[in-house]
Amino acid sequence: AQKLEQHLQIATAMIGIAKALKNKEQYDCWSAILNSIDRLGAAGMSDDEQVLDTHGQQGIIVYAPVFRHPHFDALFDKVDSTWGLEKYLFTRVGQCRLPRIRGHERVERSPRENLPPSYYQPNFLHAMDKGLVEMVAIATEETAILRCGFLYRRRSRKSLILDSSQ
């Protein structure tokens, strides 16, 4: 639930920034991200495990839910990286951010009901059809998984530019 709240807060803040900058493209993008996060809910968030490698380096292995489409990994990486992009917008509390590594294993968890088919890992939908995993109601409308192609650049200490040129 904490990760869900964090992602909702980041997306909401970025919507406010895009609105203040009158950047409709970014406003629409972050609004769609917020909607996706809200629809996935806590069940759609990854699990984390802090590890220490053989060289004494700490890191966090991130395990995505088994049902979630892999394209959400890049979307959540973008949301997660937003914390460090603008120190003046977000205040970090607690220990410094550790490197995040995508784990190959997936977390066994049931999805929320009424997610669009595009939110699912194709193999998971097939397993539901075969009765191999718990069947949940799937939304009738299709929603594309958002892939906003933008980068952040800082022009000065106080101005954040949302650049959609990439």
Keywords:
single chain; 166 residues; alpha+beta; 3-stranded mixed beta sheet; two-stranded antiparallel sheet; 4 helices; 5 strands; 14% strand; disordered C terminus
How would you describe the overall organization of this protein?
The structure is a single chain. Residues 150-166 have low confidence and may be disordered. The protein is an alpha+beta fold and 166 residues long. The protein has helices at 2-20, 24-40, 71-85, 122-130; strands at 47-52, 58-63, 100-102, 151-154, 160-163. It has 4 helices and 5 strands, in the order H-H-E-E-H-E-H-E-E. It is flat, with a radius of gyration of 17 Å. Strand 2, helix 3 and strand 3 form a beta-alpha-beta unit. Helix 1 (2-20) runs antiparallel to helix 2. The strands form 2 sheets. A 3-stranded mixed beta sheet has the order 1-2-3, with no helix packed on it. A two-stranded antiparallel sheet has the order 4-5.
Q: How many DSSP H or I helices?
A: 4
Rounded to an integer, what's the Rg over CA atoms? 17 Å
Strands, count: 5
Shape: flat
**Secondary-structure element series:** HHEEHEHEE
Work out the strand percent: 5-15%
Strand order of the largest sheet: 1-2-3
Mean pLDDT comes to 80
Percent of residues in helices: 25-40%
How far is the N terminus from the C terminus?
32 Å
Regions with little confidence, pLDDT below 50 for 5+ residues: 150-166
**Mind describing the biggest β-sheet?**
3 strands, mixed
Structural class computed from helices and strand pairing: alpha+beta
